[in-house]
Amino acid sequence: MPGKVFSISAGEFIHGVPHTWTFVETQTRSLADLGWAVTLSVVDDRTSIRGIARNVRRLRAEVARSGAEVVHAQYGSVTAAVADAARGALPLVISFCGEDLLGTPEPGLLWRMRTRASRSIGLMAAWRAQSLVVKSRNLLSALPAPLRSRAEIIPNGVDDKVFVPLGRADARSKLGWSESQPVVLFNAGSSVHKRRKNLPLAQAMMTELRQSHPLAKLETLSSTPQADVALKMSAADCLLVTSLHEGSPNIVKEAMACNLPVVTVPCGDVEERLAGVQPGCVAPYDAAQLASSIRRVLERGGRSNGRDELARQGLTAPAVAAQLGRLYDRLRGETSFACAG
């Protein structure tokens, strides 16, 4: 029977309402649809000692008031440490998403030190957690070997009610795009994530592609609302991914839900996700080879079978929520048994 979960993520309060990553909010709604009572709150300061202490005090009180049976930290690093400090005696789940284990590919000694410290802080909390979630196999491998036995691979699910295939012509009409212009979609990320997304390689690929398709356009996304992303996915011809590293990139699974062909470099779990999806492919970190792969997609035309594959892999938001529900149930049972003993 569903119970109560307290979910903690990085974010901010807007008019007293917590706001965080879209995937966390989608997960919260999907768990609620299954009957779970999920309290979502945020860590709104992860950099100052005073701010972190304030968040611990506030969250400790919120967790106690909620009646939660499980606390779920939706990231490693300071978020996980704050969740650990605020949970009291409740079982703790920590989700590692990517950069919290793999680091941020920013240059300079300061960033290297920050990345190392962030990872270490998250891993200290992981040793105390009852269960870990990682989004992909490469993140599982990035954990210290003794921690892997308590980790499960559960990628983020996709809201298949938002990401729905629409007719290409209708979508382009709504966006005001030319019917004939080839459009390649690219997630440029935001803030410190931009370097990881590797825009220079995407731009170099476009230079190669325009030798045969001079009107081709690179349509970039950055902090774009979900509904707009979904519409552009139905209007575009292909998604391009050139990231230096990833966990399980949500943008790839969202493209699959919209039947948008994907051409990507081998990062994160993309090879596993796209193994049965056509057209599209995984290509090397090389502008010419990426351009050649996109040319094949453009010449073939049409959409992919990604939506069917996404459902087969159990990566819709409701399916992933059901997986998390089973994890929470197990932890509740272990806690009850321990208390009874």
Question: What would you say this structure looks like, in words?
Answer:
The chain has 341 residues and is α/β, with parallel strands linked by helices. The protein folds into two domains: 179 residues, Rossmann fold (3-Layer(aba) Sandwich), CATH 3.40.50.2000; 145 residues, Glycogen Phosphorylase B (Rossmann fold). The protein has 15 helices and twelve strands. Strands 1, 2, 3, 4, 5, 6 and 7 form a seven-stranded mixed β-sheet that branches. A five-stranded parallel β-sheet has the order 9-8-10-11-12, with helices on both faces. The C terminus is likely disordered.
Task: Describe this structure in a few short sentences.
Helix content is 47%, strand content 17%.
Output the keywords.
17% strand; Rossmann fold; disordered C terminus; alpha/beta; 7-stranded mixed sheet; 341 residues; 15 helices; 5-stranded parallel sheet
The helix-and-strand class reads alpha/beta
SSE order in H/E notation?
EEHEHEHEHHEHEHEHHEHEHEHEHHH
CATH architecture of the largest domain: 3-Layer(aba) Sandwich
Q: Provide mean pLDDT, rounded.
A: 94
Tally of distinct domains:
2
The gross shape turns out to be globular
Largest sheet: 7 strands, mixed
Give the fraction of residues assigned to helices.
Answer: 40-55%
CATH class of the largest domain: Alpha Beta
Give the secondary structure arrangement, pairings included.
Blueprint (H helix, E strand, L loop, with lengths): L3 E11 L2 E4 L1 H12 L3 E7 L5 H18 L3 E4 L3 H10 L5 E5 L2 H4 L6 H20 L2 E4 L2 H6 L8 E3 L14 H8 L7 E5 L5 H5 L1 H11 L7 E5 L4 H10 L2 E4 L8 H8 L4 E3 L5 H4 L6 E3 L4 H14 L5 H7 L4 H24 L1
